[in-house]
Amino acid sequence: MIDNNEGSKTSRRGFLTSAAAAGGAALTAGAAKAASGDSAILETQNWNSELGVGVDAAPYGVPSEHEKHVKRRNVEWLTADTVSSINFTPLHELDGIITPNGLCFERHHGGVAEVEPALHRIMINGLVDTPLVFTMQDLLRFPRENRIFFLECAANSGMEWRGAQLNGCQFTHGMIHNVMYTGVPLRYLLEEAGVKTAGKWIMPEGADASGLTRSIPLEKALDDCLVAFKMNGEALRPEQGYPVRLVVPGWEGNMWIKWLRRIEVGDQPWHHREETSKYTDLLANGKARRFTWEMDAKSVITNPSPQAPLTHGPGPTVLTGVAWSGRGTIPQVDVTTDGGINWHKARISGPSLDKSMHRFYYEFDWDGSELLLQSRAHDNTGYVQPTKDQLRAVRGTNSIYHNNGIQTWSVNAEGVAENVEIS
Amino acid sequence: MLKFLNPAVVAVFVLVAGQSFAGGDKFGLGRLATTDEVAAWDTDVRPDGQGLPVGSGDAYTGEEIFAEKCAVCHGDFGEAVGRWPVLAGGHDTLTSDRPVKTIGSYWPYLSTVFDYVNRAMPFGDARSLTPDEVYSITAYLLYVNDLVEEDFELNSDNFTSISLPNEDNFYDDDRATTELIAFSGDVCMVDCKDSVEITAHAAVVDVTPEETAVAAETVQVAAVEPVAAEPEPVEVIDPELIASGKKVFKKCKACHQIGEGAKNRTGPMLNGVVGRAAGSVEGFRYSKALVAAAGSGLTWDIQELSLFLTKPRDFLKGTKMSFPGLKKQADLDAVIAYMQSIAE
């Protein structure tokens, strides 16, 4: 893949030369016998000499002190108050396809509900033969499944409709996470209650102070929805709906009702607040699309990006990013370094799962000149991620939601990256 | 509300359930929901009126309730305070650069207003309104959107006769025909264009939170343990009382911030409020009533705060604080202890 190694050889020689010079300086300063080389090697480090803390120092483990900058961040001016707001996953600090639980972005409409699991109930009512109530214990007695899915907020990249605005993939693309859920197929709970033939829609409802509701067609509910209680092996985090949330694979995150307490079956949609005044896509002609549930194929280069500049100088470089589609898998991602004049097929590494994030890499030798980086996802339906201008031609700039346009980062000779748009 | 199941009801259910589960591929898990349980949770309302409770309310009454419980965030006439949602106006803005999406200009159905106010409002005190209050507020929201006169009464009988102006401008997702085919197919991989220009920079309209603009420095700073400031000597307060006060404070959080980095929001930030002169937080626009009280020397000592928080409007006529008050002495003591535990 890398056909010219000269750059890295030069820099290795360069290092040894300067290390020797440093050694020489130490000699003239009067050291008896100066060793030559990297002080990280030549000096004994504390951790190589002193004992560390024992087991149980952190009964629930936490990341290294040196990773404290890896955290969710919010954009304060976006919303009136943090209890009805959003923060962002630090995509530029992650690799592989799984988002660690503590870094999954949060979106609440009435703050994090602190639900006591022993007092949590799930009710199924409406057009069913038998309205039922389940406890958490009941839920654990149904057969369960493990599935990995991305959850993307419909408003991800929503601030970029009118032009490049936020510097960092955390802010432009961080309303997404990818998690392995353990849960009971929603179908089992609905079959337990017995859906009447007139039942065509379900309405899941949350137990939080916003009592969030959405209308979902029964067909989807019976297809692949899960009533999940674990994420990445452990209990759901409170901010992700502890003790139980709905998983609606491939569809906008707002529908994945957290703190799920009730599912009503009906013969028509409810047209509630989150599917009328919000999460409808206003077009340039003043009309609005509703029930835009599926998340279109999308990708973003996470490194380099504005929060993750190229600091190593010219030579071998690893470009990486993530891609996903609400309609299936991602068989191909293309990457350009020259603003779309020429494209290269990226290498996808890790599992390629339905409605899950995919990780791609493109390794190249950076010659130190300016780069215009873009990635372009293809999904298995043949759909190709459009440019932002292609999207604007159809949608205008007022739709807020479902912006899956191709992202551009410019990288200058110093390796500093910036969010730009190009011709 | 139902506290326990009548054993007779349980017995009947077991019999029914046993028969039912024997018939199909069911697991026999869960139990029958009682009628009262379903009624307690199933409050949702649809455009066809399904789910509306019996009741009524007029715009006049709604205005009073709105002023007390809603205006603190939404403004007296639904014009909104700060970044809270605008509820009225916005007509003919949907095709403009800055659409104002209100109940009158955008929302398709009135039932959505009723359902949402009933389930989620007032913010921080959800599910506290009676059906008549919700009808009244809904009527008032129609009035401020110029859709009814101020003596209009909305009730369970005339509800579905009201339609909102923008109803016909919504249509179901049509991406399958408008986008999926257009955006599918072969792509160009080589020599796809002659030249490329940068047309827009985020740096020019830079609104990225500042902390990350210096992410590289943050990495190094983070590795150094910050030296903790010597804490001010404070009166020792029962930690359990503080903990329970923190829970009570949730009622206040919709408008007030407290703790590290607290800022003024709908209400002033409350760090160090206990013992502070009233009306003294910089940059907050207090009500005239509070400014006057501050002028005559009001200080938020425990006693005054306790009186204020019992019934804010009685203590200080004309206060902007719409909070109805804390009824339990234990809650008052706890929330004051909590605020006391957080210094300037």
Describe what this molecule looks like in 3D.
The complex is a heterodimer of chains A (423) and B (344). Chain A is built from seven helices and 23 strands. The N terminus of chain A is likely disordered. In chain A, the strands form six sheets. A five-stranded mixed β-sheet of chain A has the order 4-3-12-7-8. In chain A, strands 5, 6, 9, 10 and 11 form a five-stranded antiparallel β-sheet that branches. In chain A, strands 18-17-21-22-23 form a five-stranded antiparallel β-sheet, with no helix packed on it. Chain A has 423 residues and is α+β, with helices and mostly antiparallel strands. Chain A is 14% helix and 27% strand. In chain A, a hairpin with a 5-residue loop joins β13 and β14. Chain B has 344 residues and is mainly α. Chain B has 14 helices and five strands. A two-stranded antiparallel sheet of chain B has the order 2-3. In chain B, α10 crosses α14. β23 of chain A pairs antiparallel with β5 of chain B.
Features of the shown structure:
heterodimer; A: alpha+beta; five-stranded mixed beta sheet; five-stranded antiparallel beta sheet; 14% helix; B: 344 residues; mainly alpha; 5 strands; disordered N terminus
Please state the overall shape of chain B, judged from the principal axes of the Cα atoms.
globular
| Radius of gyration of chain B, in angstroms, nearest whole number | 28 Å
The H/E string of chain A reads: HHEEEEHEHEHEEHEEEEEEEEEEEEEHEE
Mean pLDDT of chain A: 93
Uncertain runs of chain A with pLDDT below 50, 5 residues or more? 1-29
Q: Write out the strand line-up for the largest beta sheet of chain A, numbering strands in chain order.
A: 4-3-12-7-8
Helical fraction of chain B equals 25-40%
Question: What is the number of strand segments of chain A?
Answer: 23
The chain-level structural class of chain A is: alpha+beta
Classification by helices and strands of chain B: mainly alpha
Number of helices of chain A: 7
Uncertain runs of chain B with pLDDT below 50, 5 residues or more?
Answer: 1-23, 212-234
**Biggest sheet of chain B, in brief?**
2 strands, antiparallel
